[in-house]
């Protein structure tokens, strides 16, 4: 059985991806920062559906904890699946911030940098020794790298950096046949950035070719595909999953 790590798996896109991947026969190690109850609920839903999952605490902004997290992953792999390797990593954890450039603080800037670029870089580095040949890495980026939206400049800049980092991962990990791709969601109905009110959702839907905002399941299906053998010849790509947002 292929076992994958999904960061930020206690809610939103991460939770939906964890449940979908489990239904497709993957073992799931999902992480949470502080909401242990939500993470436990995801694990319980997976188990009730016949799958197997484990929740581990992780702050992706705290690089100093990554080696101990790798040790915890190794223990979880052996205890729950009797394997020693990972089949995939989904760098999904993150948070949003709406603030114009002129008023972004250094602390806000650093917080977004650590979660959305520095964290995925060093977490991937830490878990790389556990990844099997042919494993798949999926990085969550954003349509804000393609469509400039006032108020989210630092978030978009670091997601753009993650797009570039994805291609370098694909290049450097290629000798081990490890693929790396990015998924770039448009407007999705999640809690990120405080969620969507009715007026804002209507505006975003009007700017989307398919006439609605996305659901977490829309993104999860693409992530699950990229983790599977069916996408074995897709590499170094950023896939826009937005229903045709501002085209």
From TrEMBL:
Pfam family, one: adh_short_C2
Domain Ketoreductase: 2-199
SMART domains linked: PKS_KR
Cross-referenced Gene3D superfamilies: NAD(P)-binding Rossmann-like Domain (3.40.50.720)
Molecular function terms, GO-annotated: oxidoreductase activity
UniProt-listed PANTHER family: OXIDOREDUCTASE, SHORT-CHAIN DEHYDROGENASE/REDUCTASE FAMILY (AFU_ORTHOLOGUE AFUA_5G02870), SHORT-CHAIN DEHYDROGENASE_REDUCTASE FAMILY PROTEIN
Name under which the protein is recorded: 3-oxoacyl-ACP reductase
Transmembrane segments: none
Family of the protein in this entry: Belongs to the short-chain dehydrogenases/reductases (SDR) family.
Keywords, comma-separated and alphabetical: Oxidoreductase
Organism: Pseudomonas frederiksbergensis
